[in-house]
Amino acid sequence: MKRIPVFTVLLAFCILTLSAQDNASKKSYTFLLTGASFASPNNGWFEIGCELSDANPLNRAIG
Questions:
Q1: What percent of the chain has pLDDT over 90?
Q2: How confident is the model at residue 21 (pLDDT cuts 50, 70, 90)?
Q3: Does pLDDT of 25 surpass 60?
Q4: I need a labelling partner for 34 at 20 to 30 A (CA). Which of 20, 23, 62, 63 fits?
Q5: pLDDT at 47 over 80
Q6: Does the structure show a pLDDT above 60 at 11?
Q7: Is the dihedral of CA 20, 22, 24, 26 positive or negative?
Q8: In the predicted structure, residue 63 carries a pLDDT above the cut 70
Q9: Mapped to the 3 state alphabet, what secondary structure does the chain carry?
Q10: CB within 8 A of 36, min separation 6: which ones?
Q11: Which of 62, 63, 59 is nearest to 34 (CA)?
């Protein structure tokens, strides 16, 4: 009789774990850099800052 509740709890745990991993891979922010003097393609500070804040970088100087 205890097998069904234990199986249900394990199944729910597996489903929740898989859905949490899917959400963790998506970046929550997108930063757009336009018209700034440091937006040159040779300067990587904007991309480094976006990596540290877990954001998608869109640098219009790069393309």
A1: 0
A2: low
A3: no
A4: 23
A5: yes
A6: yes
A7: negative
A8: no
A9: CCHHHHHHHHHHHHHHHHHHHHHHCCCCEEEEECCCCCCCCCCCHHHHHHHHCCEEEEECCCC
A10: none
A11: 59
- At residue 12, φ and ψ (nearest 5 deg) are -65, -40
Residue ranges covered by each domain of the chain: 30-62
Single pTM value for the model:
0.47
Question: How do beta strands 29-33 and 55-59 pair?
Answer: parallel
**Bridge partners for 31 per DSSP:** 57
CB 16 within 8 A of CB 24: no
Contact 59, 34 (CB under 8 A): no
Place of tokens 């700034």: 36
Q: Write down the pLDDT at residue 4.
A: 73
